[in-house]
Write a structure and sequence with these properties.
- The complex is a heterotrimer.
- Chain A is α/β, with parallel strands linked by helices.
- Chain A is built from ten helices and 24 strands.
- Chain A has three domains: 182 residues, FAD/NAD(P)-binding domain (3-Layer(bba) Sandwich), CATH 3.50.50; 57 residues, no CATH class; 162 residues, FAD/NAD(P)-binding domain (3-Layer(bba) Sandwich).
- In chain A, α1 crosses α2, α1 packs parallel to α10 and α7 packs parallel to α8.
- The longest helix of chain A has 25 residues.
- Chain C is mainly α.
- Chain C folds into two domains: 101 residues, Orthogonal Bundle (Fumarate Reductase Iron-sulfur Protein, Chain B, domain 2); 59 residues, no CATH class.
- Chain C contains eight helices and two strands; from the N terminus they run αααααααββα.
- A two-stranded antiparallel ribbon of chain C has the order 1-2.
- Chain C is globular, with a radius of gyration of 20 Å.
- The N terminus of chain C is likely disordered.
- At the B-C interface, α1, α2, α3, α4 and α5 of B face α5, α6, α7, β1 and α8 of C.
Chain lengths: 435, 292, 169
């Protein structure tokens, strides 16, 4: 039996790995960042159940770590591929953490004492981390990593405080990158997606107006493990925001700034976030400025109905034309038309959340080239056929699940992950038969 | 540098203060203004809403005249500049219409090729002359002043056609003002319309639209509103009394053409800058500058 | 709208007009509401709404628009064209409707007739006006040292060319 390679350690990659591992197939799970978890680890709660996201994700992450059939390779990326289904020879490049994984206990003291700060990608750049850092409290593996572009030792030849304070002697500046060669029977791509940067949509002022945020930034703001401890303080003045608006389809459903497709989960996650605001402070005013409500999943319509009737979230149909900022208060005025009554109005709020498009992972082009698989016109991975082969790529033995081939929500990603695990298991079975 | 000078019919008819300020500043910066002999209306707004071919003909005709002069064409009015730009783009992609227009141009013995360079006032200062040249010419910096730039719709939209400045975050006019030593403010509604093109249909709404901007900049305590477009200036400066009676609030506020401020910073006498023709209360600003 | 896609024809009937307007992308409008919310007129004049204008165009009601005064209350700010996510330009569609309205001799602001007449007769919208200073003194081009205005060398030929084009379409 050969192992299977899973590329991408978000919820889809984790699910696929667990499914395969549980049926006795070995898995190499390759993740480019210091921890598995993906975007789901950054969310506060999940729709429509309002479960705490990390609470349902972390057990799976730990299971991956402990599973005898799964080997996790973090800080790693696929660099070459040869062969065919049943016999893929791959090379995985592991970038150095500069920390000995066997010795580090994840205590975090190194990070506390490190003098260098950088924007934290995990905190959607609303908060900071240090040059030596743990990805997030529930990171798997819970091992520190040094950002060599930020670290004073690597950039200026000074400091080494982390080495001094580490009681496990785990800091290893001389650690080198390492290439692993694997022979696998099939490959599952689960590399996920990125968020559209709405700075090009000038009329919404993102990047100019401090109190205009993206949805992912909002998730970190509202999350208890976020930079404000879950208090909805707005960037310009630290005032707790009680009057908040969401704008849908930012960078989606457009021929101009962004992409023409629908990003699938924003109507639901905006509702979820609106409910979170109301849970934090029931007297808050929350408005969702939408185009259509795409809430077709099981329990979705009911979820939105409850948001309206139980929580008083206001939904207004109309894509806003522009946002202006009051120079003194930094409050924002949304110019919109309530298209259901044909009235042009203004909504002045303290905080605006832009529900941005889910866009292809910027590595897809490179990865597609290495793997020899086709991408679609947007840069997502292509599938062979949407109906008869929805998780197969253009190359036999390479499968896709989750948002790396288009925007989708967590339940769909998990279902696809299991589908790809089944496909990979079929390939294994064929190998067995061949002998 | 030499340019074919096309002020447009609005400037020449009643915005002569603007024309004076241009003729008395640009040559001092090394720009030789050569009038386009035989020029006519660009076609906006008389023909654009009435007859497409007549509109493109009107703009093409003036570009043909500039082509014959072998010079790039300096355009003062935002409306004219967009009109020429749209015409250039359309005729380049519509050979059948172009043929019709060529036929009519031949009546006056004109030919239109479509390769004349169109220079907007912003770009004359920004791209052609540049920061150093402007700053060097400033002998009396406008320190202590904070102005609001009004770039005007047709200088910044539509982004699909190349416009002198960005449609959502235009900065050129702000920078030009800063080069004179003054500060600027990115006030809400900076990219809003003056409303002037609505005049044939609803004068009252023009007043309301223009009134909003004047009230905004006044409330923010700015020292003046600055523009380069005669349509915009006409509404904001010449019509303040009418705006006031329409909106029922004070909108008295100094409004300038950029070249007037440029002239003051270059210590050109106010009389040569048409400043006595500004209807808005510019005297307070002039007194502070000490220009008399 | 792709400016290059709008044809100029010698005669128009409403069917042809509908086709022209649809070629300007009107049919992909999903009535999102961005254009009226950017529009300075829609927030002030009840009855002027670029989104509703596009809806009428899509349902073949151009005739109604052409016969109403509503298409004349656009201020040409171009925000709708700039912001439309489907690259529709309500502004260009309104201009096309205006031209059709003129062709059919429908009601329109008299100012346009005046401007057209003036340009044909003099080459410009308005002849030089004497203006007054803040102190109510009269000034004119000559008193400011400005040269005579630019105008067509041969007004007759110029008018002939323009009138020819106005007749044709």
């Amino acid at each position: 039996m050969k192992p299977v390679l899973v590329v991408g350690g978000g919820i889809a990659g984790i699910q696929a790995s667990l499914d395969l591992a549980d049926r006795g197939i070995r898995v190499h799970l390759v993740e480019k960042s210091p921890s598995i978890g993906g975007v789901m680890a950054q969310l506060d709660k999940t729709f429509p159940t309002m479960d705490c996201s990390i609470c349902i994700l972390a057990p799976k992450m730990i299971e991956c770590f402990r599973h005898p059939n799964i080997t996790i390779h973090t800080q790693s990326e696929l660099v070459s591929l040869e062969g065919t289904v049943g016999d893929f020879s791959v090379k995985v490049l592991q970038h150095p953490r500069s920390v000995d994984a066997q010795k580090c206990t994840g205590c975090g003291l190194c990070s506390e004492r490190c003098p260098v700060k950088r924007p934290s990608v995990f905190q959607a750049c609303l908060g900071q981390r240090k040059a030596i850092y743990l990805a997030f409290p529930q990171a798997v593996p819970l091992i520190a990593t040094i950002d060599r572009d930020a670290c004073l030792w690597f950039t200026q030849g000074i400091c080494r405080t982390c080495e001094t304070v580490c009681s496990a002697n785990a800091v290893e500046y001389e650690q080198k990158e390492n290439t692993i060669e694997l022979n696998v029977s099939s490959i599952i791509l689960a590399t996920g997606f990125e968020q559209y940067n709405p700075k090009d949509i000038g009329e919404y002022g993102y990047g100019h107006y401090r109190n205009v945020l993206t949805a992912l930034e909002f998730e970190r703001l509202v999350c208890a493990s976020g930079p404000t401890g879950g208090v909805l303080t707005r960037p310009s003045d630290g005032k707790v925001a009680h009057n908040i608006a969401f704008i849908q389809c930012v960078g989606s459903r457009t021929q101009t700034t962004g992409y023409p497709y629908c990003s699938a989960s924003c109507c639901m996650y905006a509702t979820k976030e609106a409910v979170l605001i109301k849970e934090h402070e029931p007297s808050s005013h929350v408005t969702i400025h939408y185009m259509d409500l795409r809430i077709f999943g099981k329990g979705f319509q009911e979820f939105v109905d409850r948001a309206q009737s139980n929580w008083g979230v206001r939904y207004v149909r109309g894509r806003p034309g522009e946002i202006t900022e009051d120079p003194a208060s930094k409050d924002l005025t949304i110019h919109y038309e309530d298209t259901e009554v044909g009235k042009v109005e203004k909504n002045t709020v303290e905080l605006v959340i832009l529900c941005t498009a889910a866009v292809p992972n910027s590595d897809n082009n490179k990865l597609g080239g290495i793997l020899g698989v086709k991408l679609d016109e947007y840069g997502f991975f292509s599938t062979k056929d949407p109906i008869s082969s929805p998780v197969e790529t253009s190359r036999q033995g390479i499968y896709v699940c989750g948002s790396c081939h288009g925007p989708r929500d967590i339940p769909e990603s998990v279902a696809e992950a299991s589908a790809t695990a089944a496909k990979a298991a079929e390939d294994e079975a064929r190998l067995e038969v061949k002998g | 540098m030499k340019v074919a000078f096309y002020p447009g019919c609005t400037v020449q008819a009643d915005q002569i203060g603007y024309e004076a300020s241009v003729r008395n500043t640009m040559p001092k910066l090394g720009v030789e203004l050569i009038d386009v002999e035989g020029a006519s209306c660009c076609g906006y707004p008389p023909f654009s809403s009435v007859n497409e071919a007549a509109w493109y003909y009107s703009s093409a005709r003036n570009m043909a005249l500039a082509e014959r002069m072998g010079l790039p064409i300096l355009i003062l009015c935002n409306g004219c500049h967009l009109s020429f730009t749209e015409t250039k783009h359309f005729l380049a992609n519509n050979p059948i219409i172009k043929a019709k227009i060529d036929e009519k141009l031949s009546i006056e013995g004109l030919t239109y090729v479509g390769d004349v360079e169109l220079i907007h006032v912003f770009d004359l200062f920004h791209n052609k002359l540049g920061e150093e040249k402007i700053k060097q010419a400033v002998t009396k910096p406008l320190t202590g002043f904070k102005f609001g730039a009004h770039p005007g719709c047709h200088a910044i939209r539509p982004n699909k056609l190349i416009r002198p400045d960005d449609s959502e975050n235009p900065i050129k006019l702000d920078e030009l003002i800063q080069w004179l030593g003054a500060e600027t403010m990115d006030y809400p509604g900076k990219i809003d319309c003056c409303g002037s093109s609505l005049a044939p249909a609803s004068g009252k709404t023009v007043m309301e639209i223009a009134g909003d901007k004047l009230r905004m900049v006044k409330a923010l305590g700015l020292d003046g509103l600055v523009t380069t477009c005669p349509f915009c200036f006409k509404v904001y400066d010449n019509r303040q009394r009418a705006i006031q009676s329409t909106v029922g609030a004070s909108v008295e506020f100094p409004v300038f053409y950029y070249t007037q401020l440029l002239g003051l910073a270059m210590e050109v006498k106010p009389d040569f800058l048409g400043l006595d023709l500004n209807q808005s209360p510019v005297d307070s600003v002039l007194a502070r500058i000490g220009g008399s | 709208m792709h400016v290059e896609d709008s044809p100029v024809a010698s005669t128009f009937d409403e069917h042809r007009l509908h086709d022209t307007l649809m070629k300007m992308n009107a049919e992909v409008c999903d009535q999102c509401g961005k254009c009226p919310s950017a529009c300075p007129v829609a927030s002030r004049i009840d009855g002027f709404n670029p989104r509703q204008i596009i809806a009428k165009v899509c349902s073949g009601k151009e005739g109604e628009l052409i016969r109403s005064g509503v298409i004349w209350t656009c201020t040409s700010c171009l925000k709708c064209k700039e912001r439309c996510p489907e690259e529709i330009s309500p502004y260009d569609i309104i201009l096309a409707l205006r031209r059709q309205s003129i062709r059919e001799g429908q009601q329109h602001p008299a100012a346009y007739d005046d401007m057209v007449k003036a340009v044909i007769e003099t080459g410009v919208i308005t002849q030089p006006q004497p203006v007054r200073t803040r102190k109510r003194e009269r000034k004119d081009r000559a008193s400011l040292g400005l040269p005579p205005t630019q105008k067509p060398k041969d007004q007759t030929k110029y008018a002939e060319a323009l009138q020819g084009l106005l007749k044709e379409a």
